[in-house]
Amino acid sequence: MSGAGASEPETVNLDTVRRLFLELFGNGHVELADQLMTDDYVNHDPSPGAGSTRADVQAVAAWLSSRPAPPQLAPSPKGIFAPPFACGSQPS
What we know:
- Helices cover 38% and strands 0% of the residues.
- By secondary structure, the chain is mainly α.
């Protein structure tokens, strides 16, 4: 499920990021944040008004998990990431 030609560390990183988004934001498993993010994790693209630390990401994920997702926005593993991260691409 990784990008073609990706090195093993890149593959592990991509798999971790996929799992982070699916588990925290898709399934509401905020308790997995400690397992999926390092202590010095930095979100380089935080939501407006949100901080960039692991605790900030956990807080956003907890808030989102407390709200039901509209059916049209329900997360799906297919198409979340499509190396090389091209917009509109679908994994094969």
